[in-house]
Amino acid sequence: MNALQITAHVRENDSATLICPACGTAKPIMTKTFRYSHHSVKAQCRCQQVFTVLLNFRKNYRKQTSLSGTYQITGSKDPGGGIIHITNISRGGLAFTVSGRHNIKKDQELLLEFQLNDKNKTVLKKQAVVVSVRQNTVGCAFRCHGELDKALGFYLQN
Fold it and tell me: Which range is least confidently modeled, 5-19, 47-61, 143-157?
């Protein structure tokens, strides 16, 4: 079994660049035929190295994080809130975990507040809508983009 694996981020024009993990050779590819079927393909470099490519079709780069914050359910008959642990974040949204019981449901609106671990310790308050709930893991999409998105964009690049 082949243990070498890379992730290739697919651009809006359905292109991606594969970089061989053995020799570093870069090769551009078109990924349109894989969009709705295989997101994992085998590739062979001209150096003969075989490796697996995981194609990432997300619109926004998702950064793995370990940030603390809070959530508050808004616009609902079932108010609630608590402490969250943000596991990943992008320009378009984030995922977090909640300890213990919660009453978060798909399509609920949340107010999220958290501090980036950048040099300015930027505090962000974001309106978000819940897009997925898997036990204690919640995925959210940001409602709007504000002036602090500049800080988030810079944070995602580092």
Answer: 143-157
